[in-house]
Design goal:
It comes from Marispirochaeta aestuarii. Keywords: Oxidoreductase. This protein is an alpha/beta fold and about 260 residues long. The chain has helices spanning about 15-30, 40-55, 70-75, 105-135, 155-175, 195-200, 205-210, 220-230; strands at about 10, 30-35, 60, 85-90, 135-140, 180-185, 240. Strands 3-2-1-4-5-6-7 form a 7-stranded parallel sheet, with helices on both faces. Helix 1 packs parallel to helix 2 (about 40-55), helix 1 (about 15-30) crosses helix 8 (about 220-230) and helix 4 packs parallel to helix 5 (about 155-175). The longest helix has 29 residues, at about 105-135. The radius of gyration is 18 Å and the shape is globular.
Length: about 260
Amino acid sequence: MAGIDGKTVFISGASSGIGRACAELFAAGGARLIISSRSIAGLKKVAEELSRKHGAEVHSLELDISDRRAVQDSIRSLPDEWKAVDILINNAGLALGMDKLQEGEFDDWETMIDTNVKGLLYLTRTIVPGMIERGGGQVINIGSTAGIAAYPRGAVYCATKAAVKILSDGLRMDTVDQPIRVSNIQPGMVETNFSNVRFKGDEQKAASVYRGIEALRPEDIADIALYAASVPEHVQICEVTVTPTNQATGGVMYKRS
Ligand code: 8X3
């Protein structure tokens, strides 16, 4: 397997959850990390821990990926030794609210679309040309089972993750003549602060999502990202769908009279 040792890996949304777990695993494998998040305090904690535990080189970037100008400026002004990103992990994303579409909150929609779709696009558009110039690279998108089939009261979140799937497929096509690999990892239920964010701090509602189910752990997804990054260069892991053993997706609904 190709190694990740010494590679420079950019991880968005790295202060918690799947992004944080990817940071940990890639650091343990000897990667150099650029970690981004809106919360610099969270990033500093992660950076300190990874340096202490793994001797990792970590560059922290306070960044709202939904701000196009901020993405362009902050990537452009990375210190020289951090400019050559080998692997981009587009992890940052969120769900907000669980409303019927016809009753949804416009602000929630804007935030999800701006982050999950436009933010991913801004980072990809800004970082991938450098990979091509340098002769290789990889984009690992964190999609979702929600992008394969809608579920009730989740239409807009599901649509953003469907966009991640299609954007992954499209980028794979547009870089087919380049040494660029594109992966889309589509997890089902992962126990992170995802539901806390979705339910805006209502801990009871958030906890009820995982009640009685052994959900995936962020490390389970990081393992897959690491695998996708570690296979030989001629191997491209296009798509991985992963759920807890007791979850099945893709349901059909009926209203019977
Ligand atoms: C998260 C998957 O099913 O909890 O992207 O919405 S789900």
